[in-house]
Amino acid sequence: MKRLMSYLLLLLLLSGCAKETTAVPNKTEVKERIHIGFSMDTLEEERWLRDRDLFKESAERLGAKVTIMAASGDDALQIVQAEQLIQLGVDVLVVVPHNAEATAAIVAKAHDAGIKVMSYDRLIKNADLDLYVSFDNEKVGEMQAEAITKLVPKGKYVYIGGAETDNNAHLFKKGVFNVLQPLIEKGDITVVYDQWTKNWLPSNAFENMRSAIEANNREIDAVIAANDATAGSATKVLAAYGLLGEIPVAGQDAELAAVRRIVEGTQTMTVYKPINILAEAAAELAVKMARDEDVGADRKVNNGKIQVPSVLLSPIAVDQENVVETVIADGFHDYDDVFGD
Ligand code: GAL
Predict the structure, then answer these.
(1) 111 partner at 20 to 30 Å CA-CA among 43, 95, 148, 177?
(2) Which tens digit of pLDDT belongs to each residue from 293-310?
(3) What is the pLDDT of residue 341?
(4) What terms describe the molecular function in GO for this protein (predicted)?
């Protein structure tokens, strides 16, 4: 009798367990797996490939699924791709806007579908944006100008700006002129050339730099370029005019080619932005947004419509003195890639 009772008990237990393992998870359990849509402007520059991979890795480590689309600098395509991500039913949309103004439409469409939007690295203007995660981009410009004015306190400056459609390009430039303006007013520095670079294209930056040299009879003393891709074009033009290594050049992004130029002395400095920290922070915050959890943003940035809750990380100035302690130590670049042949 006792054995029969214990056998029945076992049967009962097993049937309970069996139910446990094969139960079809209900709708909310499935929904636990957060689905993030990542709408990128371009994968042209070295950094965006890194952002894409690091963000995906970080988000997947947090259990989220990520769908990524890149619009190759095409505004209309970026909006269509964002609509596709919305239709896919993403829980949160992360956007690197090509055009700060045009992408406001994406925020409106996402909100109509009950989806929150984070702008990644670049700000979306004039929209009810939910979160902005980036670096202190004005600081980037200040670091560039501080490094170059130390070497060239007086003289003729060329400013190769970024894409006018990119809010960051305006912040970088504001930072540069925060430092240059007092010296301009004192008459020590003259900015003899100052142009945006359409779509951040190196070929456009090359044309800008060539016009700058030609328009000033090759008499220039310093170049500040908004990123390393445009700085690379500036050094190519300087080489063509036999001025390579003689004119200090500032860049941004710590691209491998730029760090090698710094080591060999044909570029003075770059501004390193630890993208792994940005991507990890953004992935964590995106998951929180999807779960309607408090993101704890400690800053506010005015995007022309609202004070956007923001997280701004610190950039790092890199020159010949601290290449090893910064980009090598962080594993951003390998020692041999930078110092090797
Ligand atoms: C900026 C970004 C820079 C730079 C540039 C070109 O918005 O902050 O790191 O690479 O875009 O894509």
Answers:
(1) 43
(2) 999 999 999 999 999 999
(3) 84
(4) monosaccharide binding
User: For residue 161, what is the DSSP state?
Assistant: -
Ligand 1 within 6 A of CB of 38? no
Q: Indicate which residue's Cα is closest to atom 9 of ligand 1.
A: 253
CA of 62 to the centre of ligand 1 (A): 26
Per-residue pLDDT for 114 more than 60? yes
Amino acid at 197: T
Rounded to whole angstroms, how far apart are CA atoms 189 and 206? Answer: 23
pLDDT the model gives residue 20: 46
Task: Quote the ligand 1 centre to 120 CA distance (angstroms).
Answer: 11
Taking the model in full, what pTM does it have? 0.90
Report the SS3 class of residue 332: coil
Hey, what domains does the chain have and what are their CATH numbers? 35-129+274-313 (3.40.50.2300), 137-273+318-339 (3.40.50.2300)
- pLDDT, average across residues 40-47: 94
Structure-token pair, residue 240:
């063509």
Separation of alpha carbons 37 and 85, rounded Å? 6
